[in-house]
Amino acid sequence: MTSKSTNASAERIKEKKKLFLAREQRIVDATLKLLLEQSIDRVSVSKIAARAGIGKGTVYKHFLTKSDILFRLVFDYEKHITQSLARGIEQAERGDSGAAAKAYFNARLESPERDRLMQNLETRLIESGQLTEEIEELHKLRRSNEDDLSELMTKLIDRGVLENVPPHFHYLACLALAQGAVELCFNKSWNYRTDNTQLMEFITNIGITMGNRGQYRNQNSQDPES
Question: What digits encode the pLDDT tens for the residues 160-199?
Fold first, then answer.
């Protein structure tokens, strides 16, 4: 085979892979749209195929089961949060101390509907007992984020930016506030409001500074500055 033929063959393989991945993403995107419109149980592989504009059999060329598609959604969402956090941590290392918290809140609160859906999907997958290895990969990614955040929080505590409490207090407080904000959007007593976008921005701004030095008074603290 000539070099020219080899290059042409490689290009064809590359193009086929590109088309395969693009079709796979169409399946994932179609599933997300359906799940935001309907309950999990009502979204079937047949409906996913129809929304993606492909045959049901084609879906199974990419995913063995519906659960595999659901996990892909959850894992992609966790990677989205991870990437946002990584950028925020990098900015925080350069001096913008609230950047990591802001990145986390923005990633989760930009679409409370999607965030709540991903939580429900993860719970469903864990309770099913399926995809245990995949779920463990998800948790490994989350623990890696925790390690990075713990390292950053320790540095900010040492610099006197954040309260001198265990580092995980800071990022778990962010998690709790973000979780509460998402649930608020679906609380039947309050979800009639139309200013959710502005509310999420307000909560984000609170979250960015809520652990700053000088806000917490622990009577049992040995910190001379408290």
Answer: 999 999 999 999 999 999 999 999 998 888 777 778 889 9
**Geometric angle at alpha carbon 137, from 133 and 141, rounded to 5°:** 165
Place of tokens 């502005």: 198
- Please write down the long-range contacts of 201-205, taking CB distance under 8 Å and 24 or more positions apart: 203/105, 203/109, 203/177, 204/102, 204/105, 204/106, 204/109
Per-residue CA distances from 18 to 13, 14, 40, 155 (Å): 9, 6, 29, 42
**Domain regions of the chain by residue span:** 9-63, 65-215
* CA 72 from centre of chain: 12
pTM (global) more than 0.85 = yes
Give the type of residue at 188. Answer: K
Q: How confident is the model at residue 12 (pLDDT cuts 50, 70, 90)?
A: confident
Give me the CATH code for the 65-215 domain, please: 1.10.357.10
CATH number of 9-63: 1.10.10.60
pLDDT tens for each residue of 35-65: 999 999 999 999 999 999 999 999 999 999 9
Rounded to whole angstroms, the Cα distance separating 140 from 130 reads 17
Which residue type sits at 129? G
